[in-house]
Specification:
Largest sheet: 3 strands, antiparallel
Oligomer: single chain
Strand order of the largest sheet: 1-3-2
Shape: globular
Structural class: mainly alpha
Number of helices: 15
Radius of gyration: 19 Å
Order of helices and strands: HEHHHHHHHHHHEEHHHH
């Protein structure tokens, strides 16, 4: 596993914290729902999501399940924070995924009418999200910074292609991803080794909605349970299914590339001021683009049969190139002292 991919990884304790905090956000949203019928539907969706996530957690080396009690969850949070004294990157990544989290994306066999009627109230869960930020030891203004940078990145990467999604967050992009025929492939790719069939797809999509790709699906070991923050893009280097996925869904490339920009700008540069690691990320991005361009060339040997894959992969590569350019500019501006943001 490369040093770059390692930095986007969460261990089992951190992964349990991420998913359990996301469950708390869903529970807070359901508690604030004043429409009884919608509340029941949200609970039904939560049950499907919990099943998928618990399938992942129970597959850990030390099997666990979601923490539902808030007092126990806060205690687990303190344990994780205390173990991150030397490097706070996992805490920043957890808050990033919580800030962009947008549940009620397609899972199970709920009808599309459900997704047309149900929405997630960011405003109603914001007080709890701010409390979580405090527990993680990170200023809560990072929540809005993450959201603003993510939406700006989506717009910059995609131009007018996804203008209708700006402000809607990662959840809307996930709907676009899971609505297509790539869902089973992406779901299975994001699931850990040991899960198969429908269970793997559901678990993978449940994890992906939380911003995570199970490390087992990338052939990664060494204590890393999941990859977050757009880091799954780097899996394209090791001949995994990532390259095939980008040929099926350019929306996946857009989602991960936008988050990767947030990590580069707001975590690596602004919060940690780590220009050395920023350079390493840029180097890996360049290699990934070359890798995907080679795959694209292979697809073009049979243009008729691979027409759809060629179209999606070309768009995915464009997103990655734009992301690389934006990240390079962010690093250049940081090196030149052209930074008017508040730094932690």
């Amino acid at each position: 596993m490369s040093v770059v991919v390692e930095q986007f990884g969460l261990d089992e304790e951190q992964t349990l914290l991420l998913f359990s905090l996301q469950r708390s956000l869903i529970a807070a949203d359901i508690a604030a729902e004043d429409r009884s019928a919608i509340s029941q539907k949200k609970k039904q969706w939560l049950g499907i999501w919990e099943k998928g996530v618990n399938d992942i957690l129970e597959n850990f080396e030390c099997p666990v399940t979601l923490i539902k009690d808030r007092n126990l969850l806060e205690e687990h949070c303190r344990i994780v924070v205390n173990k991150c004294t030397n490097l706070k990157t996992p805490l920043y990544l957890i808050l990033l995924e919580l800030s962009l989290f947008n549940p009620y994306y397609p899972l199970g066999d709920l009808s599309w009418k459900f997704y047309e009627k149900v929405n997630y109230s960011n405003k109603k869960v914001e007080p709890y999200l701010k409390k979580v930020s405090t527990l993680l030891g990170i200023r809560y203004n990072f929540i809005n910074i993450y959201k603003k940078t993510f939406n700006k990145s989506v717009k910059s990467l995609s131009g007018f292609y996804k203008k209708m999604l700006i402000g809607a967050g990662a959840g809307t992009l996930l709907v676009a991803i899971t609505a297509g025929f790539a869902a089973p492939v992406i779901g299975a790719m994001a699931a850990p080794a040991g899960l198969f069939g429908a269970a793997a797809v559901n678990a993978g999509l449940a994890a992906l909605g939380g911003g995570a790709v199970a490390a087992g699906g990338l052939g990664i070991a060494g204590g890393t349970a999941v990859i977050v923050g757009g880091g799954s893009i780097f899996g394209a280097m090791s001949g995994t299914a990532i390259g095939a996925v980008l040929g099926r869904s350019s929306d996946f490339a857009l989602l991960e590339s936008a988050k990767l920009e947030v990590v580069m700008k707001e975590i690596i540069l602004q919060a940690q001021k780590d220009t050395r690691f920023a350079q390493e990320i840029l180097g890996e991005q360049k290699k990934i683009i070359l890798n995907l361009e080679q795959q694209l060339s292979e697809f073009k040997f049979n243009t008729k049969e691979n027409k759809e894959q060629i179209k999606n992969l070309e768009k995915s590569i464009d997103f990655l190139r734009n992301s690389l350019s934006n990240s390079q500019s962010a690093l250049n501006n940081f090196d030149n002292g052209d930074d008017d943001k508040k730094k932690e």
